[in-house]
Specification:
The chain has one domain. It has four helices and no strands. It is an all-alpha fold and 90 residues long. Helix content is 52%, strand content 0%.
Length: 90
Amino acid sequence: MKKLPAFKSDENFFEFLENHDTADYWDEFEDVKNVTVKRPKKTPITIRLYPYVIAKTKEMASQYGMPYQSLIAQWLAERLSFEKQKRPSV
């Protein structure tokens, strides 16, 4: 089993969890009883989208069994991660 690296911040830990399979680190988590993970606070926004975009997004979110707002947030996060890897200075 692999050893978990030291994390400088919660954000670094969350980023690690998004990009790694925790099964590789099972020994590190085995003795943990109750863990409370503080997620970063979300800020509500208003965005104007075409009705067909909303309809298709709702349809896809339904297939995934999740709210469409969560799917949009996931897509944005994935794109940001992609852009960060593509252009690390951003």
